[in-house]
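Design request, tokens follow.
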């Protein structure tokens, strides 16, 4: 269902000015919803802020079908709160809660700690890599590959502002 309002819009559309164009309110409604539930597993994302990362398993655990009416209070409340954009930090699950969720899934604390240590090692390697200049990174790559090439010359860069035609 769409409705038009009398508010005006001042924008550019395909190179033409559009003003006083009616806005369209859009809404979506569902009658039947199918919910797939996925169990959690230990994740492998090294960008995890702290602790052990989590991920969804590749196969769903259960399927539920549900009918939703527009009069349902939970649907109305969820829709109203989802209209405001969340900040990135609001989407982060704290590490202690992630650990608790993994323990509830049957993972032992030793495996969680081992994964956390591996993630910390990868994060440290990334920090070290970012601290190197690009040429140091290329040099270490060739040294690690055993190519024997260990001397590099920096490319000549010309400052266009100072270069003059003779």
């Amino acid at each position: 269902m769409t409705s038009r309002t009398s508010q005006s819009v001042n924008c550019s559309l395909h190179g033409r000015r559009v003003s006083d164009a009616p806005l369209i309110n859009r809404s979506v409604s569902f009658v039947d919803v199918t919910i797939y539930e996925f169990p959690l597993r230990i994740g492998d994302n090294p960008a995890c802020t702290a602790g052990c990362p989590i991920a969804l398993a590749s196969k769903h655990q259960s399927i539920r079908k549900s009918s939703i009416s527009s009069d349902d209070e939970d649907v109305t409340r969820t829709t109203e709160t989802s209209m405001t954009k969340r900040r990135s930090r609001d989407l982060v699950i704290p590490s202690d809660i992630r650990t608790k969720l993994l323990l509830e899934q049957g993972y032992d604390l030793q495996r969680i700690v081992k994964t956390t240590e591996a993630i910390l090692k990868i994060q440290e390697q990334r920090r070290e890599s970012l601290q190197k200049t690009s040429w140091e990174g290329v040099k270490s790559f060739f040294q690690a590959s055993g190519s024997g090439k260990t001397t590099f010359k920096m490319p000549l860069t010309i400052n266009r502002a100072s270069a003059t035609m003779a």
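Comment from the thread starter after seeing the answer: thanks! Residues 31-128 form one domain.
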